[in-house]
Amino acid sequence: MAFFDTHTHLDYLAYETNEPISLLVENARKAQVEKILIVAVMAEQFKNLEKITALFPNQLCYGLGLHPLYIQQHQQDHLVLLEKLLNEKNERLVAIGEIGLERAIPELLTDELWKKQCDFFEAQLSLAQQYHLPVNIHNRKSQDQIFPFLKRIQLDKCGVIHGFSGSYEQAKRFVDLGYKIGVGGVITYARANKTRNTIQRLPLDSLLLETDTPDMPVFGFQGQPNRPERIAEIFTALCELRDETPERISETIWETSCSLFS
Questions:
Q1: Do residues 233 and 207 make contact, with C-beta atoms less than 8 angstroms apart?
Q2: Whole-angstrom Cα distance, residue 155 to residue 214?
Q3: Which of 100, 150, 202, 224 has the greatest count of CB atoms below 10 A from its CB?
Q4: Of 95, 83, 65, residue with least CA distance to 4
Q5: Per-residue confidence (pLDDT) for residue 210, from 0 to 100
Q6: Strands of the sheet with 135-138, listed across from one edge
Q7: Nearest of 30, 70, 62 to residue 46 by alpha carbon
Q8: Is-cis flag, bond preceding 214, omega within 30?
């Protein structure tokens, strides 16, 4: 089996644990995680992710985006920089992300900041459309607000709804548009009935595996930074929910991941 961790902040894990990227990549490979996508959240990370992934081009790829959590820091110049880097067409730059809308933090929902969130989200979707790249979408308490944007701005390769924890009906709407659903540590918790039921019912080829390293710890590792190798626990939990064989699940998700982030 081979795994593709389709959503990490590996640079943040290295900083938090003071471990070299080489060790993090090696630990992941020992757990059959052959590919890792690192996504940006702020413009100051952009060049660093380019350098990090150059060290391990067969294992690491990256996405560039401006995350809605940091909407107060984002500037128009950051969108200009993003487009400049997209235009350079680095082969390891395979996605625009992490982008999206954030509705769980009241301070970010003032009229001014909500409009800025929407403007930056739309601008980055338009760049994804222009450069034929998939998107990696943050959607905390914002699935219903995000959907109209994705329906209106149609992308060649669509992308993934990261860390999805909504209802089956919400997920199916995204899948019907062509988007994939990110399956992470949430499904390792028995109490997460709604998410587990959703992942159980969706088409297998609409699912991707992700850790959100160093966030979203899996069950049994609460309080510790998450790591790409813990995708094995997520995979085990997924196999318990699905009717397909583990081999079929692994093969399908690997092919889907590689096709989307090629």
A1: no
A2: 29
A3: 100
A4: 95
A5: 98
A6: 3-8, 33-39, 60-63, 93-100, 135-138, 159-161, 180-183, 207-209
A7: 62
A8: yes
88 is in an annotated binding site: no
* Contact predicate 250/53, CB 8 Å: no
Residue 29 φ then ψ, to 5°: -65, -35
How many domains does the chain divide into?
A: 1
Give the number of other CB atoms < 10 A from CB of residue 85: 17
Task: Report whether 7 belongs to an annotated binding site.
Answer: yes
CA distance 115 to 98: 18
pLDDT reported for residue 166 = 84
* C-alpha to C-alpha distance for 121 and 67, rounded to whole angstroms: 9
Long-range Cβ contacts of 14-23 (<8 Å, 24+ apart): 16/214, 16/225, 17/214, 17/225, 21/52, 21/55, 21/56, 22/55, 22/56
- Residue 98 counted as an annotated binding residue: yes
Query: Is 128 in contact with 155 (CB distance < 8 Å)?
Result: yes
| pTM for the whole structure | 0.97
Q: CA-to-CA distance for 117 and 141, rounded, in angstroms?
A: 14
Q: Is 67 labelled a binding residue?
A: no
Q: Residue 82 maps to which CATH number?
A: 3.20.20.140
φ/ψ of 229, rounded to 5, equals -65, -15
Residue of 230, 228, 238 lying closest to 198 (CA atoms): 238
Q: Residues in the chain with pLDDT < 50? A: none
What is the domain extent for residue 239?
3-260
**Would you mind telling me the total number of residues written for the chain in this entry?**
262
Residue 162 annotated in ligand binding: yes
- Collect all residues with Cβ–Cβ distance below 8 Å to 32 and sequence separation of at least 6: 1, 2, 3, 232
Return the amino acid letter for 82.
L
